[in-house]
Amino acid sequence: MRLTSLFLLFGCALENHARLYQTADKAPSLEWTDLEALEHMGPTVIDGGVNFCTYSESATRIDLMLFEDPQSDEASLELQLTRGGDVWCGFVQGIGLGQHYGYRAWGPNWIEAEEWIPGSTAGFLADVDSDGNRMNPNKLLFDPWSKALHRDHDWSMGSTASGPKRADVTYGAAAKSVVVGSEYVWSDNEAVWREQRANDTLPGHKENELVIYEVHPKGFTMNPASGVAHPGTFRGVGEMAWYLEDLGVNVVELMPIHEKPLDGGYWGYMNLSFFAPEVTFSHAWQSTGRVDGVIDEFKWMVDQLHSHGIEVWIDVVYNHTGEGGLWRERLYFETYDQANEVNFDPKEVAGLYSYRGLDNASWYALSEDGQYYWDNTGVGNQTRTNHAPMKRLTMDSLYFMVDELHVDGFRFDLAGILGEKDGDYDTPIDPAKTILQDIIDDERLAAQNVRLVAEPWTAKGTGPGIGGFPSASTGTGRAWGEWNAHFRDWWRAFLNHCQWGESGMTCHGDAELSNPVFVLNSTEGVDGGSVITGSEAVYGHNGRKPYHSVNFITVHDGFTLYDLVSYDHRQNGCGLLNPKCCDDPLSVWCDEESGEENNRSYNWWDESKKRQIMRNFMTALFISNGTPMLLGGDEWMRTKFGNNNSYSTWADNEWNWFRWGEWQGITARNRYRMYDFTRELIRFRKAHADILSPTEYGQGRPLAWKTSSNADMSSEDWSTKRHMMMHYYRTEGAEGEELAILVNMETYDVSFTLPEGREWTRLIDTQSWFDQSGGFFDENPTADPFLSHNITLDSPAEIGASYTVKPFTMVVIKERL
Question: Suppose 629 and one of 102, 106, 481, 552 were both cysteines; which one would form an S-S bond, judging by CB atoms 3.0 to 4.6 Å apart?
């Protein structure tokens, strides 16, 4: 049925949108060639209707298709958009919120033909031509700027693929864009939060005071033992705000929250949309099948977290998309054990969800012949991050999340891709000439004090690299933060007792590692002294601060902390987190060699010893300068059973979700104690931020490196010893207590002679005696078994002029004033 109440105006005359539209009688000559000058892209509800704008340089025709029934293969209304420069727009009166729609495009590879009807191939020339065009009018395309998709693509109704499936009509099958608004009323607290975040007066949220908690938005609460009323949803995350507050973190970093395809993996890094929240993470969508409540639910989550003092950061993925294909088929010859593997990538077969069908060459980095995709991402579908449409979409996406959803910060996946030169992706370029500089300089983001953190590497080592991300050119002091892989690698090697050999470094069962760096005082930024004090050699060159080093031991991509001390090698074959390898070992998704090789992991065998080494890692994270980031679940020893690459669609299961029941109940005392130890460590760091989290390099409490005999470190000591003391001392006339950290990674007891002229108390001792039967609990039978006695901030034990540190142990002591 056609919509009879609608009428169409192209380039409608609207006073407050004069930059967008001119009068209808001037529509044929309309030119809006400057994409950056356009006020709105996507759908805009105005004057009793909706205006639609999208982008394509190569299309010869784009149709807007409106649907009353989003399951139907027949649109309720079809109309051609008007082209102005490379932007295509149209205004439809009489429609509004809730309207389902999509686009259909023709171009040089599939020309308009009078005899064409849906399902035919009239006008078809090539699935992909020499310029990379992949238009196909049989495929319905969602709007890159739409704020909601009504569901995933329904493959039972039609394939997105070109090639043999080029005649499949996807008008009913496709995920429709939906015009949505929001009725959410923010709490009274939110206005105060936004104001204080903007002017940097929010208590406990200075840049050097942040503690980050990385977590999956579904897996965090999907297990019923989480206790939330809406498991696996944005609402469930909001319901867990009390837990995060109790732990002491003040930032939650959510792994990607945007729409992804059905085969987009558990982690969610194969985004389709950069605006629309994933509907399957929404209780509102699950209960009604409607998308008009998804944004409101996301806002409720943010409001709840803010009300508990927790910032919300989103992991964003602008470097590639999840737009399907080229689908690889893995062929084997001989036997499986000695298979000769061949990957067959038919260039004709690619999925057309949106960008690829609107203008493949404008959105994606292509090979010179236009047939294939550049791949510095390692996962395909690399975007042209420094070309006009992707730059505009990126900024609009950030603005939407900050202004509308009240997001506080972002972690940029494979951010090095954003620092590549458009069209020349392997040639180094000054990041100041890329969107990286645009983002850090952006006044709209700066006005809300938005946090910006890069995953600084790429799969091919392109882009600025670790340490290469820019500071603002505006003189505001804003700068990119970066995940500090040097911190991860050094501490893993040091605490897992890695050894040198003639050919490199080994961590017991792990592979040989290049660049062994145990020395503590090199100037390259990859040594222990550097990572402990904020990696000044890496970040200080362009005015960045210690807190721009985001320190981590574990993240989603790799081992959990428990697995880091429990497995010599990754376990990525057939198993609980990769059942696909059990059912179909020849599947393209089953790759036992996937995941990081140089894990610097070790199986310490004894469970008590494992907990001791975990406490060492936790202590290292929170005594080091920089911004600490905790992988969710490490605080209660979550395991992924040795899988260090649990990304796949099949890994979206109960073994990858947080199994809260494992640390609930009387039999889980060890896990409770690890949680309490972590919570107390965070409290310790916050109480000593002036020492452990300075705002400037070379300022704050001075640090002296000492041997166990309290002598200054010699060159020989720096290179060979694994026991050391970090003494944060007080200068003459200064106030405040002193701290010292004693580290013994030897296999024997080491007696530390403590700095003289002070009375010392013990705050932390990671040794196993405090955490096991036959030790502390036998001598103290009334002690609470659910609290950690390795850390005693409120009742520190007095110690003498020396202290014996057990093997593989870290100790923190404080001067008693």
Answer: 552
